[in-house]
């Protein structure tokens, strides 16, 4: 497998502040790779170093095997799509897309051919003469991407390009971007703080926090097998308990939570008896009024509210100790009778939980 981008031990410091701290990763050719993290974690700084707008304090950046250190932005085989797109309002669609080609001295006939071809690829055939203010938000996104792709970059960098869109359009564009990347085959490196965007679109995702990669893997791996407490909480929704270990092996752990519940959970390491742990559990792992109770961690909760959201509807519940928990509602209408104030039994299988050393 060949890589379009290779980062080795990259560090970026601004004075005494370390924005990117010893980051190493590869991006395979033709893949959709996302860097996911909260604001200020260093993801945009990392992207700017790939683009050439910042130089690393130390480390190496290679694009298709060529060292990029010291290479100016206009000489790198990458293009960048910004959150606010930076389209020229005084130019029509074709002129926007052709801008970079004209700067490169491409002949007019070739420019016309290339712009028409790229408009076809982004599903905007015949839009060349339209003004930017005649386009919808999604169409503007595709024009911005077309303007970058027409220059035939090895890597397309996207810095939170959906952040300025309303929710419904953002959901539509997640699907459109994934389809477009698969269609054109260009390597996409996508920066976002939105875990849904990263999970839906990406082949692989790196979760970044405080300048470092906490975990890198497929969306399924990050969601189902988080390797750190930060990933467990940041990627997807989760319920959390803190407790004390009563027994531990290499595969599971028994603990008593601070509220007094005795639970068993999956574990990836052995904990010392008496050590403090944080237990994480996805809302969809909670079973409502389970018939087969064998081996489950069982307890009662009170329903505070029904959080209706179509297929993603949930219950907001609370234990007698006022510990709030989110429980996913199955979409078989079996529990339509549940209403706020009801006491219900919930249970979860030990394999559904994940434990880490407590972050106290």
UniProtKB/TrEMBL annotation:
ATP-binding listed as a keyword: yes
A molecular-function term among this protein's GO annotations: ATP hydrolysis activity
Database matches in Pfam families: ABC_tran (PF00005), TOBE_2 (PF08402)
InterPro entries assigned to the protein according to its UniProt record, in alphabetical order: AAA+_ATPase, ABC_SmlMolc_Importer, ABC_transporter-like_ATP-bd, ABC_transporter-like_CS, Mo/tungstate-bd_C_term_dom, P-loop_NTPase, Transp-assoc_OB_typ2
GO biological process: quaternary ammonium group transport
Keywords: ATP-binding, Nucleotide-binding, Transport
Domain ABC transporter, first and last residues per copy: 5-235
Keyword Zinc (UniProt): no
GO cellular component assignments: ATP-binding cassette (ABC) transporter complex
Protein name per UniProt: Spermidine/putrescine import ATP-binding protein PotA
Organism encoding this protein: Desulfovibrio ferrophilus
């Amino acid at each position: 497998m060949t890589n379009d981008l290779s980062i080795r031990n990259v560090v970026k410091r601004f004075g005494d502040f370390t924005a990117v701290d010893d980051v190493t990763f590869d991006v395979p050719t033709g893949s959709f790779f996302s860097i996911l993290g909260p604001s200020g974690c260093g993801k945009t700084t990392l992207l700017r170093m790939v683009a050439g707008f910042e130089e690393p304090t130390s480390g190496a950046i290679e694009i298709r095997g060529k060292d990029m250190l010291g290479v100016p932005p206009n000489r790198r085989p990458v293009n960048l799509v910004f959150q606010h797109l930076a389209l020229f309002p005084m130019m029509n669609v074709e002129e926007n897309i052709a801008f970079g080609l004209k700067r490169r001295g491409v002949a007019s006939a070739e420019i016309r051919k290339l712009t028409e071809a790229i408009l076809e690829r982004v599903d905007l055939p015949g839009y060349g003469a339209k003004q930017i203010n005649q386009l919808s938000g999604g169409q503007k996104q595709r024009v911005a991407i077309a303007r970058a792709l027409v220059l035939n970059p090895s890597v397309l960098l996207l810095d939170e390009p959906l952040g300025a869109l309303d929710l419904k359009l953002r959901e539509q564009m997640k699907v459109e971007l994934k389809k477009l990347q698969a269609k054109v085959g260009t390597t996409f490196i996508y920066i976002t703080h939105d875990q849904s965007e990263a999970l839906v679109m990406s082949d692989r995702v790196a979760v970044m926090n405080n300048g470092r990669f906490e975990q890198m893997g497929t969306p399924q791996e990050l969601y189902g097998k988080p390797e750190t407490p930060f990933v467990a909480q940041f990627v997807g929704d989760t319920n959390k308990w803190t407790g004390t270990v009563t027994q531990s092996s290499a595969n599971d752990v028994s603990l008593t939570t601070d509220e007094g519940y005795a639970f068993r959970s999956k574990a990836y390491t052995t904990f010392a008896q008496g050590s403090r742990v944080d237990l994480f559990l996805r809302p969809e792992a909670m079973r409502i009024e389970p018939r087969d109770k064998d081996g489950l961690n069982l307890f009662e909760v009170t329903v505070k509210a029904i959080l209706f959201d179509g297929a993603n509807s949930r219950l907001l519940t609370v234990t007698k100790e006022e510990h709030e928990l989110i429980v996913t509602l199955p979409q078989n209408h079996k529990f339509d009778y549940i209403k706020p104030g009801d006491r219900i039994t919930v249970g979860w299988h030990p394999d559904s939980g994940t434990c880490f050393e407590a972050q106290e």
